[in-house]
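QA checklist item 7 of 12: single-chain prediction sanity check.
[x] sequence parsed
[x] length recorded as 230
[x] structure emitted
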Amino acid sequence: MPILTLKFKDNVIKTYPFTKDKPMSIGRRENNDIVIANLTVSGNHAKIDYNGDGFILTDLKSKNQTFINDEPVTSIQMNDGDVITIGKHTLLFQLEDGDLIPLDHENGMDQTMAMNTEAHRGLIKQAMMNVKDEQRIGVLGFVEGGDGKIELNRKLTKIGKDPSNDIIVHGFMVGKTAALLSQTPQGYSISHYGGLSKVKVNNQVIKNSVLLEEFDVIQIGSAELQFFYK
């Protein structure tokens, strides 16, 4: 299941898991799946669909266009690691291990002519500079509520009490999948996903995605885990 990470400049705002059974809408209006409250964003700006072969980004005739990897598009099939720019915000598109899509953008790509706006191009350039080519591998080590260390070598790591999760934690109010830990170009971010049990980082309840720093402590149910790099 792909993950979209919404950012403003260097700050991660929120991560959004993509479900293949319905399109994901993006825009300024509150009825969108991804809401970007900025006047440079159209009410219904863009959408992402799964067509059985891959994930298609479509611009919905927005005023300021939709860009992917510095190019304005009307409709395009996305690849892992693509950066979508909408207004002053960016969305990083990442695939989970096991998700497969074709690697060639050229087939079926329908692009508009390049926008000749220096300010907008400056925003795109800045966004692309923030995407790093290499990243250290993070690790979560149990302090309480479990044993061992888990290398975070997936783009998306699921934490919860269901056996299907990558990291199993226990607790009466812990969700089947309680939290999602996403690997991004800026590092690792964690967000609450489900269940009544709160997700805490350094004893602080998180409401949106939080970019982890080395030696941060994550608390979910009876488990306490420390984050660090190899």
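[x] summary fact logged: The first strand starts at residue 3 and ends at 8.
[ ] second reviewer sign-off
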